[in-house]
Amino acid sequence: MRIVLVGPPGAGKGTQAAFLAKNLSIPHISTGDLFRANISQQTELGKLAKSYMDAGNLVPDEVTIGMARDRMAQPDAANGFLLDGFPRNVSQAEALDEALKSDSVKLDAVLDLEVPEDEVVKRIAGRRICRNDSAHVFHVEYKQPKTEGVCDACGGELYQRGDDKEETVRTRLEVYHSETEPIIDHYRAQGLVVTISALGEVADVTERAMAALQKSA
Ligand code: AMP
Predict the structure, then answer these.
(1) Residues that bind AMP, according to the entry (predicted)?
(2) Ligand 1 pocket, residue 86 CB under 6 Å
């Protein structure tokens, strides 16, 4: 299956993407994770991306689209993928449409995770992520690790993403509304959008998402 995951920052896209990709045996492709990997390896791309990310803005399309396409061209993505955080604006969605068309393949679904805005801010401000694996996500209130600052799953150090600080979250939400939400209409016109609530336990949201994807397949 070829799936795009959309939703505001804090909707749990990364967490859900990891479970869904595993259930569906397709790679989880997160442009945010690709940028963060470039930042920790101190590549030129990482240096460029960092200033945009720290401010809560989108990294320019010229670099983002190329990076996403390179990743999608890897052999493990030949029969499907789950895109998390890409496309993030209409021109990226158009670039993806073209790339898929030239490979003679199609998206199967665009899964839209819905969360009320006040919940989003609460979720992100308390979010702590494992340095070893961004799918290991904790929360200072809702999902405390057994030992403060240490990942239950692998012992990695937990940290707050620089762009999870409250003032940056506000910018990211504005960017989501103005830039990313319009892609939902873009895909609605193609009959691809399935919307589910992202509230509740992680496992319940995964179940809801799997049921919605099976219906749309
Ligand atoms: P995420 O991990 O998906 O929340 O992404 C973190 C940050 O990476 C975003 O706030 C953007 O600065 C940048 N980013 C990730 N994906 C994209 C994209 N498709 N286009 C532009 N910037 C992106």
Answers:
(1) 31, 36, 57-59, 85-88, 92, 161, 172
(2) yes
Answer whether 52 contacts ligand 1 (Cβ < 6 A).
yes
- Non-local (6+) Cβ contacts of 15 within 8 A are 135, 137, 202
- At position 138, the amino acid (one-letter code) is F
Distance CA 9, CA 124 (A): 8
Cis peptide before 116 (omega within 30 of 0): no
Query: The domain containing residue 174 runs over which residues?
Result: 2-216
Asked whether residue 32 is marked as a ligand-binding residue, the answer is: no
Q: Which two tokens stand for residue 89?
A: 């604006």
Each residue of 68-103: pLDDT tens digit? 999 999 999 999 999 999 999 999 999 999 999 999
Q: Which pLDDT tens digit goes with each residue over 50-72? A: 999 999 999 999 999 999 999 99
Measured CA to CA, the distance from residue 55 to residue 112 in angstroms comes to 25
* Mean pLDDT, rounded, for 212-216: 88
Domain count, the chain: 1
- Domain of 81, CATH number, reads 3.40.50.300
Q: Mind telling me the catalytic residues? A: 13, 88, 127, 161, 172
C-alpha 106/C-alpha 96 separation (Å) is 10
